[in-house]
Amino acid sequence: MVDAAFLALSVITIGSAIAALEFRSMIYGSMALMGTLGGIAGFFLLLDSPFIAMFQIAVYVGSIAVLILFTVMLVKRELIFKKIEDPRRKFAGIGLMLILMMGLGSIIIDSGLRTIQTNEPAVDFRDIGEDFLTYYWPALILMALILAGAVTGALVLARREDVEDEQRAN
Amino acid sequence: MSNELIDFVIVSIALLGIGIYGLSVKRNAIRMLFAVEIIINAANLNLVAFARFIPHSGGQTLVLFSIAIAAAEVAVGLSLIIVAYRMYQNIDIADFRSLKG
Fold first, then answer.
1. What mean pLDDT, rounded, does chain A reach?
2. Subunit contact B34:A116, Cβ cutoff 8 A
3. Which candidate in A9, A21, A25, A72 is best for mutational testing of the B interface (most B CBs within 10 A)?
4. What is the largest CA-CA distance in chain B?
């Protein structure tokens, strides 16, 4: 059986995921997305992984959601409040969502996952640090390079050359 | 622990369904990015849930990598949207026609 914290978290997470996609204003939408990401962090806490929950809050709620919020503010006002979607595709999309949920859900419920329970102690976060520095160290370095490359690429892409040329001319 | 593995997997399936709905119905580029984020989070939740019930530290390590890569993906995606918005003055992906080549 699930407990009350799990029920509340799943209502918050799924409700704000729907709200993030369906709110007319994209600013409220991105705030609802923050709710979804925070709800996932709550699930991580329920799963006894506080380190991942902290990482999730720092990276997702703290930086990605705020970055999205600032990008939404850069867009014209009419576009923020306009719903841009295919009305014809809407019902097909809802149907696809329901079929996917029912299909995957019935497969999962019928499978052997239903009986899995555990009383073993949770993984210590020291093990994660050890993993990072022993077995996964090439991946860690590669990830650092990818992050640096992605951030540099994003800056180069978003640069406005016309404004810079004007400033140089002045 | 009173919660079972299947509960977490079902929440993750619901989030996956909502994300796929958003990707297929919306034409707003920023909202499609929201949907991608929701799908990535569903995958992360699944990984941590399975890692808790095995229990093994590999799942949590993989989720840390996944979160970092998702951060890079969002930075690049948002700057691409900004560039496209500057070119077309719109964020409707049906308007981004010259990308067809």
1. 88
2. no
3. A21
4. 55
